[in-house]
Amino acid sequence: MPEGDSLHRAARRLQVLVGERVGVETPHPRAAAQGVAERLDGRKLLGVEAVGKNLLLSFEGGLVLRSHLRMTGRWQVRPAGSPRRGRPWLVLQCTNYEALLWNGPVLELSTRGTRRLGPDILAEPPQFERMVGNLRREHRDRELGDALLDQRLVAGIGNKWKAEVLWQARLSPWRRLGRTTDEELRAALQAAATLMRRSLDGLPHRNDVYRRVGRPCPRCGERIRSGGQGDANRIAYWCPGCQV
Ligand SMILES: [Zn+2]
């Protein structure tokens, strides 16, 4: 699952196309059906921005292309005219480089951005107080681990970082928001911003709890557990020994 940090990395790679007039093709039939190429071809790319798990590409004329990678999508940037195998969803071509979107299940063209997302955890600086405010307006019985994945409240945190961040902050994913203090929310958000920023900068991360069911907790030695959480039943990982 591409998380916020990998989206930001893609946004960085795509910066080489910004400011250029781009040729746009949609070789994959499902992408072609949306008429994206017809509307964007030949326009200047004005900016590429990662917002949460979305990549927003702004073109002249006020058009914004939103790409959400879901589980499988991937952006590739390479020298223009490199040999191509297969059918990418989208090809953006400029003088020296081309960007290819593979398996990008969500492509949406609009005249506005996606502004229903919460503040981006990887913004510089992150707007922690707005995120805390958003979490505070949720129902007090909602579980902390579930709320952190809600992109309307905080954009960018996926299942892996949720697990790692809550372990770092010593908070159980099952804790109810009503029983979590502002301090604790800030600590979790701060941990998310720090860990994800490090990952964005290419520093390796060794998982402490994510996908480590039954292994000993690196902090207290208790066995790591897992369980489905939230409406989407995403798997939470936690240590029952030191995450209260
Ligand atoms: Zn532990």
What would your notes on this structure say?
By secondary structure, this protein is of the alpha+beta class. The protein is 26% helix and 22% strand. The protein has seven helices and ten strands. Strands 1-6-7-5 form a four-stranded antiparallel β-sheet. Strands 2-3-4-8 form a four-stranded antiparallel β-sheet, with helices on one face. Strands 9-10 form a two-stranded antiparallel sheet. A hairpin with a 3-residue loop joins strand 3 and strand 4. Helix 1 crosses helix 7, helix 4 crosses helix 7 and helix 6 crosses helix 7. The longest helix is centred in the C-terminal third of the chain and has 19 residues.
Largest sheet strand order: 1-6-7-5
Principal-axes shape call? elongated
- Work out the number of β strands: 10
**What can be said about the biggest beta sheet?**
4 strands, antiparallel
The proportion of strand residues reads 15-25%
Round the Cα radius of gyration to an integer and report it.
20 Å
Mean pLDDT: 89
**Helix-strand makeup class:** alpha+beta
Q: Count the DSSP helices.
A: 7
